[in-house]
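Final report, section 2: Outcomes. Of the targets proposed, Cation diffusion facilitator family transporter is the one most frequently requested by collaborating groups, and we therefore present its record in full.
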Amino acid sequence: MNHSHLHPPHAHPPDGGEVRRSRGIQRTTLVAIVTNAVLSVAQVAIGLFANAFSLVADAAHTLSDLVTDLMVLFAGRRGADPADTNHPYGHGRIETATTMLLGAVLVAVGVGFLWSSGLRLQDMEALPDLHPAALAMALLTLAAKEGLFRYTLAAARRLNAPLLEANAWHARSDAASSLVVAIGIGGSLAGYPFLEPLAAALVGFLIVSMGLRLAWKAIRELIDTGLSEEELARIRETIEQTPGVIGLHDMRTRRMADRVLCDAHVQVAPRLTVSEGHRVSDDVYLRVRAAHPEIQDILVHIDPEDDGGLQTVPPGPLPGRQEALAMVGTLLGGDLPEPGRVQLHYLGNRIDVEVLLPAPLPPGQAEALRLRTRECLREHAFYRSIRFFEQIAP
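The predicted structure is given below as tokens.
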């Protein structure tokens, strides 16, 4: 008996935890949007007043963050949408794709710092005189961006949202750029203008490294990289401890944002009925979901035997049910009653047939049936056994 059991995600509407998570992502992102909008306006005003073009450039960088914040807000809302016909596994990959895009933005920002630092090292004499108000604004921006980073990172870890974590590190890159601006302005005011391009180069390397790490993490998810061996071992233990499960093989996992999709081949007793095998698969599903809440859905494939080797060695041309029923009908002939039930067990690349007769057979007919069955088994090697059972009247 091979039975695939699937609980599709669209059968389960988003629970309260998913709704709270989505709202938490949106609330955190709105805080970032308001903060970046206020800072960008203040940077432009003070930068123009203090002749600090680095502040104006940093304001342009902050304005670009508003675009990414809006992307995060959109992904946070769409990622929580329930499954539909076109997206039967939900919309969690929207978060993944946006995380990868934000990682690419971090790489671009880091490369921009490296390029800018190189240009400044070549033309340090062109830096204009600055007003001390520029340094105050740079330090205020640095404090605000660092605070936003810590707030967003804490929310990302609380909500288990890689998307927010990517945005948090984006805020840290903004804080790093503000630090570069503060060091550059402070160095210029103190007579050491070379400090800005050197700091920009160091921060550029750090931002590129962080962007690559986040982008690679998202790419691993998009190419369906499985869980670690430690996590797999915990899931295997939960499945193997389920009553009725006697074996487990070919378990696979993949991530979708903060959730995990899993499928596994579960071995049960070879002669269970379909309904009892289905009950075992239900138990596996419920136990795994209860013990591992990060698993969004699990596909349980019920096997009557360890068919791991059959994945590479194709089974022989075993007859189907209609052919087996025709064989049983031939054995019974026209003078014996139709069978009440016929059960087929495909085990070890052969077939066991169990036939339930509606009434006991006379001794002579029973002996003739036994002889015909023995001859049939000699002629057809793919039948391991054909057994007839007589129903006992209540």
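The CA atoms of residues 116 and 327 lie 83 Å apart.
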